[in-house]
Please model this.
Amino acid sequence: MFCIGIRGNLLCWSVLVMLVVLPLGMLRAQRNASPKGVVDLNGQAVDPFHRSPGKVVVLFFVRTDCPISNRFAPTIQEIGRKYRERAEFYLVYPVKSETAEQIRKHVKAYGYQLTVLRDPDYTLVKRAETRVTPEAAVFSIDGKLLYHGRINNWYAEFGKSRSAPTTQDLVDAVSAAMAGKPVAVASVPAVGCFLPDRP
Amino acid sequence: MKARHAAIAVPAILSMMLAFLADQGQTSTTRARTPAERTSGDVTFTRDIAPIVFHYCSPCHRPGEAAPFPLLSYEDTAKFARQIAYITEKRIMPPWLPAPGELKFQGEMRLTDKQIVLFKRWAEAGAPRGNPADLPPAPVFAQGWQLGKPDLILQARKPYLLPAGGTDNYWNFIFPTRLSGTHWVKAIEIRPGEKRVVHHANVLIDRLHSSRRQETQPGAGFAGMELRIESETFDPDSHLFFWKPGSIPHEEPPGMALRLDAGDDFVLNTHLQPSGKPEQIKPSIGLFFTKQPATKFPMLLELQNDKALDIPPGTSDFVVTDEFTLAADVDLLAIYPHAHYLGKELRATATKPDGTALTLILIPRWDLNWQAVFYYEQPVYLPKGTQVAMRYVYDNSEANIANPFHPPQRVVGGNRTTDEMAHLWLQVLPRGTEEEQEAARRSLQEAVARHDIARDPDDFAQQYNLGAMLQARGDLGEALQHYRAAVSVRPQDAIANNALGGALLAVGEANAALGPLRAAVKAQPDYFPAHYNLGNALASREQFREAAEEFRKAVRLRPDDSMAQANLGGALAESGELDEAQRHLERAIQLDPRNTVAQENLTEVKRLRAGGPKP
Model:
């Protein structure tokens, strides 16, 4: 299944090899340590890194009251839909004051169909080194942070957007991660709403 | 028959003004006093930050308004402390384009450097609350309509569905007023619908229903960034009705109301930015009337040089200028600079006859998203002979984030979002008595038209306007030249052809009038004036049956037009259709008892029906 859409057999092979050589002990250890405070909208603890073993994990950090992350909704949804076979996508609401009910309404209004998580303790925020919304983070199948930062360069500054983005930073990183290739750029700062109490 | 014939053929020449208009506007009115500044000691919310936030931020950052989150309390503000420090330091917020200068604008939303430092120090200190006793009273805002209940509320008939994503949208809504008699409008409050996606909106008056032709079905609205509105008679545009986030509707001073005639339409031009989810946009406008008819007649002077816009890709400092010398003493009330996405620095200056120069406005970092009309705090007196100049700089390089093309492409002047514009509107009030104001308005408008034509003889609108102005003051010979020039630029244009035909008819050249008038009805079969004038031209040639057909079409388009009914009756009478003739003549008199043409013709028809001899 890792060969779908990947150019060249060698790449498929290398992905499979990575899977095989992954130290089992480490996997087990991580599985036991569920990220602190990360819950779904029913308050159930969720560990996004171990729900779909063997898949790249992508987190989108958003909030209900950030116009920039809202404007990205169709893009976020489209990326999640396009690559869902080979990567697991999560929509993460890290702002503590946003209630499950507010988030439910927001998810519905913006037509999100991704798995929704809350991260009021910033466990995922810290692990993804997130500072603003919207911001994305890409983790390898063994949970290593490969990329974090902007989705693309649509916004250059607050209130300054291009008519269309001319880079695809997140898609590039996801594609590389899925292909088991090194991610060329590990981080590009995002433009968006500052998360409270983040540097 | 001769007497009656002459009566029929009174040509109602409808001179048309083509006004080339776009977004117009006003800024919010002056709010409470500007908050104090402190430069040393601890910075707290209650003492230092709240006064600034309440004055500059809360008007938009409150429920129901355009901004995405409220800034009405300590909790609201502390949550965004670092972000506020960042965007105020970069002067992204509050949005205010003009640089500080000699002239002050109403409702200036520009922070001082000291206020910006306060935000920074407050955020760095961890956003302390401070002593509750220091907190100023929270701002109080009117709920709903900002000027109270309007005298007339007009709702958009159909909502516009804005897609979740994609580029900016420009949509126009038509509001028929359906009033009888003349009303005087002192204010228009625009409620743009979902405020968070509407970047700005402005209302234009459409006295000729010319925008309706752009709708695929009545009430559907139509797309387009710039509007071209046609209006009848010499009636230059005069008022600016504008909405931008946080603005309080502008109320015209006594005596400066806008005339609203029965049947006039308003057109609302909106700039919409997709929000991430589909949005239904259903705006409404509220009209506030006054019983006091206008005694002051402002007008909009437009400087523009779109023809000079041919910006090579990669150029970051393309300059376009225009100058115009005032032909009368005026007070400058408001200014509205307009460019699209490549605009970089916009400047307007005035050089008085004594040589003193004045910066009317300088926008060092143009941003289409925050365009507005700027009202001066005090009217700016500009004597006759003052030269007004605009100098706009454009950036068509990759470095311009707003550039609609990637990679950059050649961009020329035009109405589409991807075209560029170089326009500057000045709202001026001529000085003097009502008659002197009227004369000043005419000479200013004529000077603008001649100025534009000198630069670009193919400027259709100004060739047309100048023709209409000359015709209005009785100079038909020169008017004909300019109408001919307009028709040669746009041979298919119904209005220009009709005006040319009408003017030819007025100088007694009915034969020559036929061609342009036939072109006009062909170009626009629902154009009443062209059918009416063509009927008159045919009647002049004693082609009464054909004339009756044209008047019949005119009557079908405007059944309540007394002159069209009268002329149909006359042409029918000439064709021997006395019964039908009488019905239309009676209808004409019913519509307008003072219609002497209809009265004379009715007397004649009755005499003929009674068996009287033909004259």
